[in-house]
Each structure stands twice: as C-alpha cells, then as structure tokens.
C-alpha cells in the first residue's frame, strides 16, 4: 500500500495522537449511542418484577450469582468508587467454575496506597480498564435475573446501588442473600463472622483474598457449605422457606 503523503495535516494529526473533528464527532456519537443502549438495558433489567414463583424453587435447584466488589474505600457517600467486579454462578450446590466474570473498572478517583497494597490494583491498571457504565453493564448482563449472594452484602449492595444510580438512575431490584446472615443464623455462638474466619473454620482454602473473583469463588464455597448444612439440619426446602427463617433469625 502506498504510504500517505506525510505532509498532509490529516495524517500528521493522526500520527501525533490527534483526531480530526469530523471523526471525533462520529466516535463521540458512537460512544453516546453505546452508553444510551447500556443504560436502556440496565433500566429494563431493573424494571422487571421479581418473579414470585422463584420463592418456590428448591434450594437444590436455585440458580445464584455469588459476587464481590473491590472498592477504593468504604463510603461511596464520600467519593469512594468500585475498582472491580467478580462473580461466579452456582446452581444448587454446584459451583459453575467455568461460568465466571471479572473486570477492573476505570474509577474516577485516586486509589489510596493501602487499597493498592490490599487488592493489588493500581491506578495504572485501572486507567486502561473499562468505564463504570461498561463494567456495570457487563456485570448485570452476566447476572441477568438470578438471585445474588455476597458476604457482608450491605457494602457491595450499597456500592452497586450507587453505581446504578450514577450511571442509569435506577436502584437494584434483585433479591440479595448474605452468607454472613446465614452464618449468624446457623452458628449463633460465634463472635466473629468475617469471611476469613468462616473460611478458616470450615476448611475452605484461602487464596487470592481481596481479588473480587477469588473472593466470590471462596464465598461460593461457603454458600454451598451452608446449603448442605441447611438440607441436613433444617426444615428449609425452598428459597421462600429460607427467607422466612432468616427473617426470624
């Protein structure tokens, strides 16, 4: 192919990292259209009503998505943001290892040094990551309408709600279960319900802590452990039964 005329302003602009205004306008339009489509998808997903029939699903057949978020801190009200999403699907007591999700997020705030040490996520890594709307859209596409499960879910749910509102002006409508609540119900004698503590006492190997996907995988193992305990010791057969027991715990 013949090399373009190097004297032209068009090609010089491209080589120097610039972009002619007409092309920039087209690219901007494409990005805006994609964002609008992502917002529309997220909004439609949140508008779907919770299916009451799911409450009759046996726990042995229940489809769940176990998830975890890494964040820049503990308060989205004070500007902390999501750094990464991690999730894995579980059907009944079977962890679908091949059906997992992970993405970093290009957060719009600085990452404290202690968070980088804890998670291994640096600003250099997130600068090349997908935007919040991209990461959120892909995560919710993975989740679909499945029941969500997390450990200490208040933190994850609050950040997820903040992200949904920031990008799409909606709130999470999915059912969310908390393995910490299960632990408090099934093991009321414990004084410590951290993920590390519960993994250790139940013999679940701890590896890759504070990586969203690895934490989701370990939480999935804890979820399955509790499902087995429930099936053996409690008169709990369906998701509705589980909600009823947890509401009285």
Automatic annotation (TrEMBL):
GO terms for biological process: DNA replication proofreading. GO terms for molecular function: 3'-5' exonuclease activity; DNA binding; DNA-directed DNA polymerase activity. GO terms for cellular component: cytosol. It holds the Pfam family RNase_T. Keywords: Exonuclease, Hydrolase, Nuclease. Residues 63-232 form the Exonuclease domain. The keyword Nuclease applies. InterPro entries: DnaQ, Ribonucl_H, RNaseH-like_sf, RNaseH_sf. This is DNA polymerase III subunit epsilon.
């Amino acid at each position: 192919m013949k090399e373009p005329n190097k004297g032209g302003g068009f090609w010089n602009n491209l080589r120097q990292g610039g972009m002619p205004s007409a092309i920039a306008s087209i690219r901007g339009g494409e990005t805006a259209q994609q964002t609008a489509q992502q917002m529309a998808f997220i909004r439609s997903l949140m508008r779907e009503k919770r299916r009451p029939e799911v409450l009759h699903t046996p726990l042995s057949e229940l489809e769940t998505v176990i998830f975890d978020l890494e964040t820049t801190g503990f308060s989205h009200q004070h500007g902390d943001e999501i750094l990464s999403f991690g999730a894995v699907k579980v059907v009944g007591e079977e962890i679908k290892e091949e059906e997992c999700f992970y993405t970093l997020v290009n957060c719009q705030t600085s990452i404290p040094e202690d968070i980088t040490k804890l998670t291994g996520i640096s600003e250099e890594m997130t600068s090349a990551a997908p935007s919040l709307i991209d990461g959120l859209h892909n995560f919710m596409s993975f989740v679909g309408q499945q029941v969500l499960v997390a450990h200490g879910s208040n933190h994850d749910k609050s950040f997820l709600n903040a992200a949904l509102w920031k990008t799409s002006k909606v709130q999470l409508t999915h059912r969310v279960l908390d393995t910490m609540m299960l632990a408090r119900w099934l093991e009321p004698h414990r004084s410590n319900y951290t993920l590390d503590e519960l993994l250790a006492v139940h013999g679940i190997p701890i590896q890759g802590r504070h990586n969203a996907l690895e934490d989701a995988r370990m939480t999935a193992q804890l979820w399955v452990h509790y499902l087995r305990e429930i099936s053996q010791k409690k008169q709990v057969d369906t998701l509705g039964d589980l909600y009823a027991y947890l509401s009285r715990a």
